[in-house]
Amino acid sequence: MNYFRYSSPAAFYPLAGTLARVFGWIAVLLAIAGLWIGFAIAPTDFQQGDAYRIIFIHVPAAWMSMFIYLVMAFWSALSLGLNARLSAMMAQALAPTGALMTFIALWTGAFWGRPTWGTYWAWDARMTSELILLFLYFGVIALRNAIDDDRRADRACAVLTLVGAVNVPIIYFSVQWWNTLHQGSTISLVAAPRMATIMLTGMLVMTFAAWFYAIAVALVRVRCIILEREQGAAWTSQLTEPGKS
Amino acid sequence: MNSPAASTTLARSASPAEAGAWPGMRWALRRDLKLALRSRSELGVQLLFYVIVVSLFPLASSPDRNLLMAMGPGVLWVAALLASLLSLPRLFASDYADGVLEQIALSPYPLPALVSGKIAAHWLTTGLPVVLLAPLLGLQYALDGEALTVLTFALLLGTPILSLLGAIGAALTLGLRGGGSLLALLVLPLCVPVLIFGAGAVAAVQAGLGATGNLQLLGAGLLVAIVGAPLAASAAIRIALD
Description:
The complex is a heterodimer.
Chain A: H1 9-41, H2 55-82, H3 85-117, H4 125-146, H5 150-182, H6 197-229, H7 234-240
Helix pairs in contact in A: 1-6, 2-3, 2-5, 2-6, 3-4, 3-5, 3-6, 4-5
Chain B: H1 4-12, H2 21-38, H3 40-60, H4 65-87, H5 89-97, H6 100-106, H7 111-140, H8 145-172, H9 179-190, H10 192-206, H11 212-241
Helix pairs in contact in B: 2-7, 3-4, 3-7, 4-7, 4-8, 4-10, 7-8, 7-11, 8-9, 8-10, 8-11, 10-11
């Protein structure tokens, strides 16, 4: 079997449609299960009350925000190295989802912090690096929008994503060090008491839901991108206007 | 259409056989320095911008000495970052507009070497003055001798990183609409570690801790940037010229 068959947009387009539907449904089912575990089964935390339940959204979103950037960097490296168009389209399709996940992580974190820490925002190392990650996503998206030529946009965004990927760990550790340098960490997520199994289960289920959601949405988006870029090609005009040949 | 003057001087100065990295870097450095020194007023305005931004902060907050001492390093660093950002479009944009950049990319010299030379010239004309002015401006913030020394040294290590990272952004945004603000969006997040370690070095000295760790990390960052940034910037230039 030729694995490179699906690196052609025309071959990938129908496959992406099928996969998007499958992953979308898995995401819906997992999200229902996860939310049910999180909000109906899991007990109230004796320290944090019901406010802790935000972790069922917050933690998966935070994980996904970092993971999607890595995946973007992977596709960017492929697109630069192999000069593959579809890889660049995948990177492009992932960026908005990554930004959304980062934003959700920050937003839910703020609402969790208010009742728990007594403040919406603290310059905690994780929060700060997440904020900078959001800026990196915005940078990639803005660069893409500023360039009219698709191929130039692909390659410029790939370079930027890779430079960012090298920088992300440095940012993370610098921010962590900066915070510990200024003050002893009074508030820490790590020091929380060990999590009950049912809470962990809910969180993991929600993480898989977020994962499948991200894949499904990226595939739907990549289909749109393919159609936009390939307009004028014979196979797309057959898709959009079946009557004409 | 092509500018014969630019291409011939570059082509004549070395046959392809001896078109090594060092001569290329020297050529780009000399050329950009000469160009920069011929528009001295522009350089002066950028330096004034730095001085004014630094002077505005006490006016906007308070002239309290303790507050100024705590704020000073951060303010000087942010101002240095903004001043570097302000001068970045000049790095490649005018050469791109009049076609010289294309000739440079076609020359037998390795492009990363030429880009390194341009970045070095950019730092010498915009970064170095900022470093030299820092002790003077630090006095406005009631910094003592040791803190001033560390601040200057940290800026000496850190401002080249700003020029190097900025060059990547400048090359990526060549010829794009809204280039200036887009450049800020791309470059500023990448500069966060430099800011943290640079201002952190002074804060560490003020707190009675040694600044060695911060300075070593800045130095390590500088080495990584010297190796990586010219490569990334020349890749971005080739993309822009396609």
